[in-house]
Design a protein that fits this description.
Distance between the termini: 62 Å
Structural class: alpha/beta
Radius of gyration: 23 Å
Strand content: 25-35%
Family: Belongs to the aldehyde dehydrogenase family.
Largest sheet: 7 strands, mixed
Protein name: Aldehyde dehydrogenase family protein
Strand order of the largest sheet: 15-18-19-14-13-21-22
Keywords: Oxidoreductase
Pfam families: Aldedh (PF00171)
Bound molecules: NADPH dihydro-nicotinamide-adenine-dinucleotide phosphate, 2-oxoglutaric acid
């Protein structure tokens, strides 16, 4: 069956592209239609004409559609989790966790529809009243990456719809299956024609046509810094609101006084779970010298016990890398690390398994410095470098010496250091004795410096991007 694009409420065919399972490249997950530029323009036009009715729709209708969508996602989390693990390569428990998060996000924003509010203030002028209200921004373009195939579309589409906007979604070409399922659920849940449009296909065609359209009023993007820059430049050109979530080079600090077990578990999760393919993953483990050798020994032992295998197999801890291109990027960086003089203390080899897939042993470097490319550039794979430092002050300085600022973590039993780190880490999110990755669905998500641009995503803070504030003055 060809999975078609959804444009103006109709399923529209297009050139078929095969969605391949990275755990087994002989396994075709499904055939998905690729949209062309005309399809994209039709989707944008449909979103524009659906906007007036949707933005005025009774809030109970908007609430019901989002709630129904969230409930169905949660009811089908095992099945959708299998699809996600099969197309992206994260393990089945990780994939079911992501689907669950997507369902919870829809439920959360279904609730937000009923909590929309404004403010009434007195004016400095006698007899004048002021109302401050929020209105939809309009047609929202959503461009998403491959590493969270359902959660990222969910955390962009749910608030867009809750606040009365219409949507054109372009999911990553590598993983259209989960996005297609999400849109199909929304369609059946009653989203009117044109309110949610799905245009699958390549970024260079589908994404670029969205960037070039004067009729997209706001664009929300997650992906690489290079594409983020294109989104920014095109959006400025079109006077469009935009929001970018890009890379990370997140530090995880381990202090002498850390609980070793807590530190190792948080580091393994931060650096290697989800195959290191999270913008919140930690690829810099900054360790003070009193615990350094014990930490490296314990971490290496732990890595030796991890199973890298088919994402759907029970007992797999780390699934495959998403595709051949990303695998090449990971192994290139492993070579770069060696050439730069870091010591490969564990792993880094390509692995053969029962089925042909993109399997890579987790790679741990030691004796790295923060100036090396492996410590400065986003790798986006199961590769981490340990940087030895003297004390907390040096650890904090190294942690902040990066052009990114998404997430930051520390393992310590010292309240003083934990408190100081929370205040002084130059990142949008700080974790104490917890992994740098794996965030809640109901609180703000986003970073600083080169990691993010624009208002925060998720939770109530999402309203900043998806609404436009109006201040009205009335002479009574
Ligand atoms: N912050 C994060 O969460 C992520 C960071 N990355 C980083 O980016 C690197 C490369 O990954 P990649 O998937 O290529 O990232 P991209 O930035 O290319 O992809 C993100 C999204 O942008 C789309 N896109 C690509 N080109 C354009 C364009 N000209 N106009 C509009 N949209 C476009 C992509 O489409 P399509 O893929 O269909 O061509 C995809 O939907 C990774 O190795 C990693 O370092 C990647 C993913 C997520
Ligand atoms: O760590 C998380 O839970 C979210 C990570 C994420 O959003 C990303 O990698 O794009």
């Amino acid at each position: 069956m060809l999975h078609k694009n959804l444009i103006a409420g109709e399923w529209v065919a297009g050139d078929a592209s095969a969605n391949i399972n990275p755990s087994n490249t002989h396994d075709v997950v499904g055939e998905f239609a690729r949209a062309n530029a005309d399809d994209v323009r039709a989707a944008i036009a449909a979103a524009k004409s659906a906007l007036p009715a949707w933005s005025q729709a009774p809030i109970l209708i908007r609430h019901a559609i989002l709630k129904k969508t969230g409930d169905e996602i949660l009811a089908r989390k095992e099945e959708l989790g299998r699809l996600l693990a099969r197309e992206e390569g994260k393990t089945l428990p990780e994939a079911i966790g992501e689907v669950t998060r997507a369902g919870q996000i829809f439920d959360f924003f279904a609730g937000e529809v009923l909590r929309l509010s404004g403010e009434t203030l007195p004016s400095v002028r006698p007899g004048v009243g002021i109302d401050i209200t929020r209105e939809p921004v309009g047609v929202v373009g959503v461009i998403t990456p491959w590493n969270f195939p359902i959660a990222i579309p969910a955390w962009k589409i749910a608030p867009a719809l809750a606040y009365g906007n219409t949507v054109v979604l372009k999911p990553a070409d590598l993983v259209p299956g989960s996005a297609w399922s999400l849109v199909e659920i929304l369609h059946r849940a009653g989203a009117p024609a044109g309110v949610v449009n799905l245009v699958m296909g390549r970024g260079s065609v589908v994404g670029q046509t969205m960037l070039d359209s004067p009729d997209i009023n706001a664009l929300t993007f997650t992906g690489s810094a290079a594409t983020g820059k294109r989104v920014a430049l095109a959006s400025i050109e079109h006077n469009r609101k935009f929001q970018l979530e890009m890379g990370g080079k997140n530090p995880f600090v381990v202090l002498d006084d850390a609980d070793l077990e807590v530190a190792v578990e948080a580091a393994v999760n931060s650096s290697f779970f989800s195959t290191g393919q999270r913008c919140t993953a930690s690829s810099r483990l900054i360790v003070t010298e009193g615990i350094h050798d014990r930490f490296v020994a314990a971490l290496t032992r732990r890595l030796g016990g991890l199973v890298v295998d088919d994402a759907l197999k029970s007992g797999t801890h780390i699934g495959p890398v998403v595709d051949e291109g990303q695998l090449r990027q990971d192994t290139d960086y492993i070579d770069i690390g060696r050439q730069e003089g870091a010591r490969l203390a564990f792993g880094g080899n390509r692995l053969e398994r029962a089925t042909p897939g993109f399997y890579l042993e987790p790679a741990l470097f030691t004796e790295a410095t923060n100036q090396m490319r492996i410590a400065r550039e986003e790798i986006f794979g199961p590769v981490a470098a340990v940087i030895r430092v003297k004390d907390y002050d040096e650890a904090l300085a190294v942690a902040n010496d990066t052009s990114f600022g998404l997430s930051s973590g520390i393992a310590t039993t010292s309240l003083k250091h934990a408190t100081h780190f929370k205040r002084n880490a130059e990142a949008g999110m700080v974790m104490v004795n917890l992994p740098t990755a794996g965030v809640d669905f109901h609180v703000p998500f986003g970073g600083r410096k080169g990691s993010s641009f624009g208002p925060r995503e998720q939770g109530r803070y999402a309203a900043e991007f998806y609404t436009s504030v109006k201040t009205a003055y009335t002479l009574a």
